[in-house]
Amino acid sequence: xxxxxxxxxxxWSRFLWTNLPVTEMPLxxxxxxxxxxxxxxxxxxxxxxxxPKLYRFDREAQNIWNKWHTWCEQEKVKEPSxxxxxxxxxxxxxxxxxxxxxxxLNAAAEGRSPAELISRKLLEGAIALTYWSFxxxxxxxxxxxxxxxxxxxxxxxxxxxxxxxxxxSARHVTHWSSPKMRADEARIFMEQVVELGFAESNxxxxxxxxxxxxxxxxxxxxxxxx
Length: 226
Fold this sequence. Notes:
226 residues; three-stranded antiparallel beta sheet; 8 helices
């Protein structure tokens, strides 16, 4: 449906993508069942009664937002692909919308009126989700051959295989790779995964070098991971 990524009209950049991993389904009798109907109905009824109001970030949240805005604009200017470049303005605005909706929904679910100021913690969570969805978008776009990265498909398969598996050594990578990589090639590949922001390293050298794929893309306390 995406067809030619070169024809950028801003449509696909509006989607919040999730790349679902292959998982085992539990037996029906062991499956978790959660019914949020009454709670959601209560929240929606309160949201309908809210009067139009201007909401603002508090001082700390505003500082986080300024960093997020700067990062999105800098990445937009640096990005050579027009299809990926179109994502960054939507990315920036999406974080603000998620923060605003969450701010009002939380208050409604708790039976109170939302405060005028949106907190730093809530904005950081909104940016975390937004950035995570951006990483998901990169993985999906890489499957379509859009990202100008020779190893994009290999990196995606690596992340799916080793996410949540703890520390990974060059030996693990050589056994996993096809065609087989040499140990030095495996370490170069591992460093590339770290540089792209998908993993952290133990900062050791040679055979002791290991990396661990992030369980969550969001890392750090600054509001951004650049």
